[in-house]
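Intended use. Records like the one below are meant for learning the mapping from a protein sequence to its folded structure. Do not use them to infer anything beyond what is encoded.
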Amino acid sequence: MSGGQGSARRLTAADVLILVNGVSAFGSGLVYPYTALYLSDLPAMGTAGVSVFYGAAAAANLATSGVLATGRLAPRPALLGLAGTLMLAVGFAGAAVAGSLAFLCAAVLFIGCGQGCLLVAMVPVLNSLTPQEERRSVFARRYRAINVGLGLGAVVAGLTTGILTTSAVPWLFVCNAASYLPLAYVFHRVRARERDDAARTADAERPTGPEDTRRDTVGRWKWLGVAGTLAVLFQLGAYLFGHSQFEATAPLVAVRLMGIGLGTVSGLLLVNTLVVALGQTWVTRVLSSRDEAYGLRAAVVLWAAAYGLAAVSAFGPLPVRYAGLLLFAVVFALGECAYSCSFHPWLIDSVGPKDVTRVSALAAGAMGVGTAAGPSVGVALTLTGEATAVWLSLASLCLLLLLAVGRRRAAAPEPAAGTPEPTPASHTGDTT
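Structure written out for the chain above:
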């Protein structure tokens, strides 16, 4: 390393936001592995409590994303993030003390709406804090921070419940609620900056009367355009045929159709998290000379290749199947690395600067739909009873995502409001 420049990179506002986002992910890792077990064991809840928690949260999340996508409710992104984090804190604190289904339902509505607000706000806020040439590394670092946070949280939760049994789970919910407070504070600080920007542009952005509102209603979705539609469809497919299949279908196929031990499922998740944590910087650097669409195509091909490896290993003896699933977890994680450093920069570059928040809302909704519906797709495929058929079907479905990824446009779009101007050729590298 040369002395002076680049030996130590200053902590930026984007770095701080990523760090506290990782802290909130750590809190989520504390509770998600044990939420269903905890609620089902409560006398006043049972399986109905589990259904209420996941069903109401998903519905509230999707409804929030849909409302924000229409543009009829359009708070500043940092205010939206602040509201979302505070709702999540209140919701999880309420879930810790819920004594009835009605109380749990009220708490979960806070959780679902908070998740919807936070997912929609994070992309435009992080974009506003990031120079254009650093978008890929910044969004990649955020993805890595979330994965590491979730993994560490799950490990701590496992150790805690191993020592104190599930009686400690309500306190884990309280810790999760507290983990959102640093993120809320950062959004509060960013909001002060947004207020300064808003003061300069308020007159230009304020609706002028009923006539303007009527025109907006007539062309309500024209702003989305082909590029925005493709971005939303890609996000839907990425979670429908990608992320959710690794989390839900892969364990099911491995255990029931490939004869793999149940403990291996945890091993696959651990390998996946480690590869994301250790390989994200390398993958981002490899893709840095290519456009974001190339990165997304690489992600899709890697996911399809991972499914293909699992399909081939299904024909072999048990050691081959173990090795094949290990390679599957590694290659799939590399695809996640390519996705994480490419998707949101691609989305931002694909739509108008004023539409980033609304398209992010639709993408967040698509992610929710894909996460909820993806396991059903996988379960339906397992009815064939053949592991190879499941893996090859998923590979084929995944490759359909290539149709949604267009080529890079010749002209770069205008930067979104509040986005820092690019600095000339300053390659500081991904040092996190």
